[in-house]
Amino acid sequence: MNAISSLPSLEHLLNEVRKIARIAGDTVMHYYNDMPTHPEFLKFKEDQSPVTEADMKSHDIIMEELRRLTPEILIISEESQEVPFEKRSEESTMWIVDPIDGTGEFLKGNGEFAIHIGLAHLGKAILGVVHIPVSGKTYFAARHHGAFCDDKGSIKKLNVNEVDMTAPFLKIAHSRSYMNEQTMIYIRSFDRPELFPVGSSLKVMGIAEGIYDFYPKLGSGMLEWDTCAPQIILEEAGGSVVDLERGKPLEYNKENLLQPDFLAIGKITKYRDT
Fold it and tell me: What is 4-157's CATH superfamily?
């Protein structure tokens, strides 16, 4: 079992991972700006989710660079062959990667996709980088070090909104492409909410920036690589990503990588009566 104490400092890892994410993002943008029309560009995985040459190129870059940076750490990526739990369970620390979060939005050309590189230790997210190739923004955080956004060299500290869940006009982010009835019923239970359809992890990053108040994900369908990097960024900005059934933060390196229904939210000051 690898120990976090044997790793380089989180600050060093964070700086290096930010560079890796930007390199992958620049490569992805070559595909995005010159979207090929030949059929081999787009394929479908067994679950019928889309995967493109851009996903795979981003995956290859990130895997190569992380292996060079920390050869002793296991990497889980959406585009890798699944690592059996018997092997994963022996590891205390692992990289959790989504080469392109929001491939559907990438294909639609709306710019709302991201690159995720997260680090988990003992089941908890401890470091994360979310890079938005189209805007050039890079969000990043490490446990007990705060959360920040690098917007083309201008770095600002991230702070969430205080959220009174009984108040009217809450700013609620929701999926641009995967809204379901369960989520809509939940959203409509609030007092005159303001709704914001947003793709990929830009919803969670918007909460970290104080643009939105919260994001409910019901009927989840998300996996660990969708949430690891965004979670630590939101947590370090003062918010939380909470399993709605257990009322606890999402966990990592579970036997089943599927995440439960969750709520990503700013700093709660008042709960609703249940």
Answer: Fructose-1,6-Bisphosphatase, subunit A, domain 1 (3.30.540.10)
Q: Pairing state of beta strands 267-270 and 162-164? A: parallel
Cα–Cα dist 29/51, whole Å: 15
Q: Which two tokens stand for residue 38?
A: 């030949």
User: Which CATH entry fits the domain spanning 162-270: 3.40.50.720, 3.40.190.80, 3.40.50.2300, 3.30.70.920?
Assistant: 3.40.190.80
State how far the Cα of 55 lies from the Cα of 253, in Å rounded to an integer.
22
Where the chain has pLDDT below 50, the residues are 1-3, 38-40, 274
For 224-245, how does the pLDDT look when each residue is reduced to its tens digit (9 = 90+)? 999 999 999 999 999 999 999 9
Chain centroid to CA 121: 16
- Helical (H) or strand (E) element with 94: strand 93-101
Q: Which of 96, 30, 110 is nearest to 59 (CA)?
A: 96
At residue 1, the pLDDT reads 45
CA distances from 41 to 90, 98, 185 (A): 37, 18, 37
Do the beta carbons of residue 210 and residue 161 sit within 8 Å?
yes
Cα 231 → chain centroid: 7
Q: How much is the CA Rg of the chain, to the nearest whole Å? A: 18
| pTM for this prediction | 0.93
